[in-house]
Amino acid sequence: xxxxxxxxxxxxxxxxxxxxxxxxxxxxxxxxxxxxxxxxxxxxxxxxxxxxxxxxxxxxxxxxxxxxxxxxxxxxxxxxxxxxxxxxxxxxxxxxxxxxxxxxxxxxxxxxxxxxxxxxxxxxxxxxxxxxxxxxxxxxxxxxxxxxxxxxxxxxxxxxxxxxxxxxxxxxxxxxxxxxxxxxxxxxxxxxxxxxxxxxxxxxxxxxxxxxxxxxxxxxxxxxxxxxxxxxxxxxxxxxxxxxxxxxxxxxxxxxxxxxxxxxxxxxxxxxxxxxxxxxxxxxxxxxxxxxxxxxxxxxxxxxxxxxxxxxxxxxxxxxxxxxxxxxxxxxxxxxxxxxxxxxxxxxxxxxxxxxxxxxxxxxxxxxxxxxxxxxxxxxxxxxxxxxxxxxx
Length: 393
Fold this sequence. Notes:
By secondary structure, the chain is an alpha/beta fold. 39% of the residues lie in helices and 25% in strands.
């Protein structure tokens, strides 16, 4: 089997290629880039199964022509707003399978508009198979624990503390060294750009993130302020969990003052006052110029990247709140992306069309597939932690 890996020179792409190269059935991994030399350097890191491929994702005709020699387009490139739909169109034209790391509900809406065409061509395309696969499947798992689920809240806490890879200071240094802003900044700014989709009382509507903060409970018990963001769960989950009346996705950053910078720049992007690259650079420079203000968390504030799902409903005739979250950290984005690619290639996804993870994966078996990628000291341990809380009527 052969995989055409878009964004093969980036952090997510190279790490995914490394995992795929371990699989006996994977014979070739095409690492793509607009810069052939960058792709060739990535090949040296990944190994013999990989080869360099020069392509501009937005050149749909050329990408489709190249994809015809592969079994699947696996899209780890970014930003999602620029590459998701063209890459998906190329896969459909070539008649090959597709999956991606797509970020953002607005982008997912555009991708889902290609569902009819994908089904007509017999193409299986699964979108948002990075951290969205984990959050969406945790949401499905949460509803399975209740007899009736009324409300689902997907919560995410992203850690940009000093000393971490994505913190503003090292990110600014890489930006100056490379002469460009990394695409991951584009995707995070995109989800902060309002208005964002929410599903409330059985209907969809849009809200401005900055004007609608919510207080959520972290699994540690710490209460944090989070904001609605543009994510695909409120768009897709109600279609597959019809009994649920409210679905929202909220996000907060560590240190929490960074939320203000992201929300402000997200609004400026939405108004056309700036673009993603300039907005990202403004956040980095502002935060680095005053670290005490922007890069300091309150005492006792939670640390580390985490995603969790809270569900409210009925169990055994009583009202209950249920929460689940990954019991330990592992590379959610890369692992879930790799598992999705392999499941599609092995014929474990039989549906055609443009599909979110919850439409084609079962939580228990999907999480079981991720176990082979956890660290040795974590093997055999439950992947999800959970908590029930009975509510007074």
